[in-house]
Amino acid sequence: MSEAKRNWKLTITVGFGSVIIRALALTWRFRITNAAPWRELRLRRQPFIFAFWHGTMLPLVWTHRGEGVPVVISEHRDGEIIARIVEKFGFKTIRGSSSRGAARALMGIVRELEHGSEVAVTPDGPRGPARRFASGALVAAQRVGVPIVGVGVVASRAWRLNSWDRFMIPKPFSRVHVAYTLPTSVEATSAREAEGEAPRFESLLNDALAEAERA
Prior knowledge:
Elements: H1 3-25, E1 29-33, H2 36-43, E2 49-51, H3 57-63, E3 70-73, H4 77-88, E4 92-95, H5 102-114, E5 119-121, H6 136-144, E6 148-155, E7 158-160, E8 168-170, E9 175-180, H7 191-195, H8 198-213
Helix pairs in contact: 1-4, 5-6
């Protein structure tokens, strides 16, 4: 397939996907829990990291649209589609992941944090294992000295893709609960120690999911 044809197909896919997401999202009914702590950080211009499981990303693309949050997107083929869609909803993108472009992604996260921005990360993306916290966000948080805010998302009715992360697409008129954790610091003095914090932050994200499910 020629480069021009690939670009044309990509443009069509991104445009169609963006329209479908917007049409669905306009019907969703949201409940947001515990957003005040991270909003206070934003008001104080204190950077932090949003962390959420890859399969719960879609509703957050809508609730945080237009905020200009940099989000880490993989360099895999599917990542290009996701990157262009989230950019249409007002996000910035940092390209790379634990399996490809990891060093570049880490540098991108650190650079954005040092400039005072929050960053969004799916620590089990782009290929899993699902709900296993890879160390990149922890190392970046330790290096810059910023907290992590875990996010849990649950929908009352949803389609689940047959993918490694069981990607969630809330059905029309679903109730969607988004629950945030308190900003939580990485208690480490080195990158190696930060990597050892992965189980604690897996629990943090799973606690956020449990909170969302209690709605």
